[in-house]
Each structure stands twice: as C-alpha cells, then as structure tokens.
Design goal:
Blueprint (H helix, E strand, L loop, with lengths): L3 H17 L16 H12 L10 H15 L10 H29 L5 H18 L26 H4 L1 H25 L5 H23 L5 E9 L13 H13 L6 E5 L10 E5 L2 E5 L10 H11 L5 E11 L11 E2 L6 E11 L5 E5 L13 H4 L25 E2 L5 E6 L6 H9 L4 E6 L8 H17 L3 E5 L5 E3 L5 E2 L8 E9 L5 H5 L2 H28 L1
Parallel strand pairs: 1-2, 2-5, 10-11, 11-12
Antiparallel strand pairs: 1-15, 3-4, 5-7, 6-7, 7-8, 9-10, 12-13, 13-14
Helix pairs in contact: 1-2, 1-3, 2-7, 3-4, 4-5, 5-7, 5-15, 7-8, 9-10, 12-13
Length: about 550
C-alpha cells in the first residue's frame, strides 16, 4: 500500500489552509500557523518509510499543494475583460510559473535529505524558501503577490516588528511556527506522549512575536509635521471609457473633483495611475521637431500640464501629482535600451513609460518613471537577451510591450517640506523598493494605482492591504489614490482611515505626517532575505560538494 491517499489529502489540505488564511480570500489568518504542517508530516512519512510503502515521488504532491493555493488565491486574474485566450494566459501563466518556482525550495530540501537528518533538512527548506521569495522580487518574471509575510496584511497590529525585519520576517515567523507545530504533532504521533517541551516551544513561537507586536502597536506614537493632502478617485472604466474618451475631458473632471475638497491649507493633490493620457505627437517646426502631448522632452507644452497649471493658479500653494502615460524621444545617435521603439520616419528611438508627474505650485514640473513593472503587461521578460517579443504582451489598453524604467528610487518634492515617494501600482507590494525611496528622503508615500482591471474581486482589497505593510516597515504615512477604489489614508501603524467605496467617484481629504527618521528596515534593507540567499548559496555548494564526493567514492 503506497499511501497515495494520505499524501494527496495532505497536499490538498495544505493548499486549502494557505488559500483560506489569505487576506480578502477568507481572512482566517491563524490558519497560516499550521498550513504547512500536513505537507511536512507527509514529507516526513515519505522519507522514513520503505519504498514499497510510499508513492514513487513526493514532488508532485508539493506541486499540487502550491497549485491549489495559487489557484484559489489569485483566481481573479481570469477576470480581465479580454478575449478568452487572453484570460487563460493571464491566469495560467502566472499560476503555473509560480507553482513550479514554489517547488524549488522543497526540491532543495529533498536533495539535502541525502546528507542531513530530517530536522536540518527542514531548516534548509525554510532558508531556501525565504531566498526564493527574495529572488522572486528581483527578476523579470517577478510575482511576489503570495509572499508568505503578506498574509498578515489585514492584521498589521500582529507584525509591528516589520519595521526591523520587513515582510520576509513574517515569512520566517510562519515557517518557525509551522515547524514547531509539526514537532508537536510528530512527537505525539511517534511517542504517544503529551507534547511537553515541544508544545511550550510552539506556544512561545506564536505568542512572543505576537505579544511584542501588540505592545509596540499599543505604545507607538506617530511622529512628523502635518500636511494636508487630497486624494482623487475618478472612477473611470478602464475598458469602455478610459481610452475612448477625450483625456483632457477626463482630466478636467478630476480637477473639478479635487477643487471641491481643496482648502487654504491643502498642500498636495494626488490623482491615480495613468490619469493623464494625452497622446504624444510630433510636428515639424522652423526650429526642428515640436512636441505635443506627454513627451518628457517638453512636458511644459503639454495641454494636460497647462490645464493643471490653470487649476493650481486658482489654488495658491497647492501642488499636484498624477500618474501619466508618457514618452521620451532619445537624441539622434544615442544608444537605445532594449525597450526602445523606432519612431516612424525619423529613425530615432523613443521609450514609453508608466510614470508620475508632479506639477508644483510655482508651475515647475518633474517626473518619475515606474521601476517595478507588471510582467506580461508592462514588461516582456528577458527582452534584453531574447529581443522584442511584443506579440506576447497582454493588452490592457494604452501602451503595450515593455515600458522603460528608471533605476534610481527618486523622491518628488512639492517644496522643501513635502517630499514623498511616488509609488505606482504594483510597486507598492515591494518592501525593499519602497524602503529605498525612504532612504533617499521620502517623508511620506503617495500610492497611485488603477485596480479596476480585475473587477470586484479580492485583488484590489489585497493590494490595499499590502500597502499597509509598507507603512509599518518604513513608519511613513500613506496617501492612496485609486481610480475605482479603494482610496484612503494609512497611518504609520498601518491602520486604514477614511476609505472610499469601490467603483464610485469620490474624493478624500486627510493629513499625512512628514517624517525624516529611518526604521531599521528602511536604513539597512532586506537583511532577512539577503542572509537567506547567501545561506542558500552555501547550502547548494555543500550539496554539490557532497554529491561529487559520493560519485568519487563510488569510483
């Protein structure tokens, strides 16, 4: 009897527990502390029984567990309003890819069983998993939506110590507790005795970090100079309205919304991602090319900027930041990046950007280009090496194919006081990315996003919750402007305030606190992930050395 049913049940149970504990997908967060235990028990049984009593391979059960988790948690990827082939690509691609990648730490753990006891092999699993999660934030197919530390996004009071560890510290906590619970159940099953010391360790592994966080949450005092900010929620349908209607009409409507909330003490207005859609065009002039639209070469002549300047002239002292779709024309003979396209009739290259535009109270302008792009929509993977493959891009309106980026984590400053990180959509799920903005002088975070692509699903609620973790990690206030919701303010403890409803036009006015000091995480970066990657590299070298020694011994 190969116990296939036991292994199948264990894999399914792990996948279900991980799915139901996820924010906005069940919100049964405590389940995460035992979610991996069924699969760990199955792996221990697989490793300790004879070959005749177990399935031939264990990894298919790991794949099943993470496939159930991915499918039940990110099923909303299918809800993009596109033809069926695009829907299938949107959901199957990220899910299958993520399933395979999540198997890798378990595969390293299984290899380590050749040389290590079960206890140390499970330590290898934890280290390799954290290393995988960090790696998954720093390559072209980055999709860290299901980073385990994100599971606490709806309960920021549980993880106030993210200001030291970042959200990968939450991943470590999840694994430590799961291993502790596994030891309790394994000892009871094998020894038929009360859990004893193992039970105490398991209880402490849950209660001590939780108690420390609750104490920090209760005693934490926000700091910083107050600044009044207005966030706009225009509620523009990205499929039927956004790219069909005159972009200047949309802009004027948003400015009218903001005007109803701006006061004499307002310092900044925040509008959502890609709110400015004025198409870049070129014409010939006596002095050369004339730029029209949102060319970053000459933003001052854009009609969008002129409309914003007229609005600011009516509201002295106010600055405005907005998401925009922009372009930049490279000089003749310039070395072009892999993302550049050739402009017909000129032979010159240009890049397209998902960007943010700041128009200050004095009329001056500054832009920031989104740095963390959505794979398959804004970023075609490995284009630098594989060449242009834009036919594979998922078209969600606007510019398709790989967009340009900027490497530096820029801070936009409305004036000497109001300096902020322009965080565009997908960037808000990257803790170390946002921390880099803060290291560079950001005093608060302005999140600009459009979450309407996936309809009324857990997607936009999860995205909002992940943003709250950035507030804890950096102890920065957040002003969040979302096209169709949820727009809100998030304080330095991660609590959401004055949230809008989903898919209604709205505007909110609130106060953010401008802060200069750095948390340990913001100052030092993602030490948990970096240490795990170095340790994993050493583990892999050790496994290779052990394998080589074994092969040489056989000879």
């Amino acid at each position: 009897m190969r116990q296939r049913r036991y292994h199948l049940f264990s894999a399914l149970l792990t996948g279900l527990l991980l799915a139901f504990c996820w924010p906005a997908n069940g919100d049964l967060t405590p389940l995460v502390f035992m979610a991996w235990v069924p699969l760990l028990l199955a792996e221990e049984r697989f490793a300790t029984v004879s070959r005749d009593e177990r399935p031939r391979h264990f990894m298919p059960y790991v794949f099943l567990a993470v496939a159930v988790w991915n499918a039940l948690t990110t099923w909303w990827l299918f809800c993009v309003s596109e033809p069926m082939d695009a829907k299938l690509f949107a959901v199957i691609g990220p899910n299958i890819g993520n399933d395979l990648l999540m198997c890798l730490p378990w595969l390293v753990m299984r290899w380590s069983r050749w040389f290590l006891t079960g206890r140390w092999a499970r330590v290898v699993l934890v280290v390799a998993w954290i290393a995988f999660e960090r790696f998954h934030m720093h390559w072209d197919l980055s999709w860290p939506w299901l980073t385990l530390g994100n599971v606490f996004a709806s309960h920021t009071d549980w993880v106030q110590w993210y200001e030291y560890t970042g959200h990968l510290g939450g991943t470590l906590w999840v694994w430590v507790v799961n291993l502790s619970v596994f030891r309790v159940l394994a000892s009871v099953r094998i020894d038929l005795a009360p859990p004893g010391r193992a039970g105490i360790v398991a209880a402490c592994s849950i209660l001590l970090p939780f108690a420390a966080s609750e104490w920090r949450y209760a005693t934490f005092q926000e700091k910083g100079e107050p600044a009044e900010v207005v966030v706009v929620q225009p509620d523009i349908d990205p499929y039927d309205q956004k790219f069909a209607e005159d972009p200047l009409v949309q802009l004027d409507r948003m400015l009218d919304q903001a005007a109803g909330a701006v006061t004499d003490t307002t310092e900044l207005v925040v509008m959502p991602e890609t709110s400015l859609q004025e198409q870049p065009r070129l014409s010939d002039g006596s002095g050369g090319l004339v730029f029209h639209g949102l060319w970053e070469n000459d933003l001052g002549h854009s009609l969008s900027v002129q409309h914003i300047r007229a609005f600011l002239a009516e509201h002295p002292g106010v600055s405005l930041v907005s998401g925009m779709s922009s372009a930049y024309l490279f000089p003749e003979g310039a070395e072009l990046p892999a993302t550049a396209r050739i402009l017909d009739g000129t032979g010159r290259g240009f890049d397209a950007y998902n960007a943010a535009l700041l128009v200050r109270a004095d009329g001056s302008v500054e832009s920031y280009r989104k740095s963390k792009l959505v794979p398959g929509v804004e970023l075609l993977p490995f284009e630098e090496y594989l060449g242009p493959i834009s036919a594979l891009a998922l078209d969600l309106g606007g510019t398709t194919g790989s967009l340009g980026i900027q490497e530096e984590r820029e801070v936009l400053a409305a004036d000497e006081r109001v300096a902020f990180a322009p965080v565009i959509c997908y960037e808000s799920i990257y803790g170390d990315h946002v921390a880099a903005h803060v290291r560079n002088g950001a005093r608060f975070l302005a999140i600009m996003t459009n979450d309407a692509w996936w309809d009324d699903t857990p997607a936009y609620r999860q995205h909002l919750a992940y943003g709250a973790l950035r507030a804890v990690e950096t102890r920065r206030s957040i002003a969040r402007s979302a096209n169709t919701g949820i727009s809100c303010f998030i304080d330095q403890r991660g609590d959401v305030h004055d949230a809008t409803e989903w898919w209604v036009p709205d505007v909110r006015k609130g106060v953010v606190l401008l802060r200069d000091d750095l948390t340990f995480y913001a100052a030092q970066g993602d030490l948990v992930g970096k240490c795990a990657q170095w340790c994993t590299a050493l583990i892999l070298l050790g496994l290779l050395a052990g394998l080589a020694r074994r092969l040489l011994t056989r000879r």
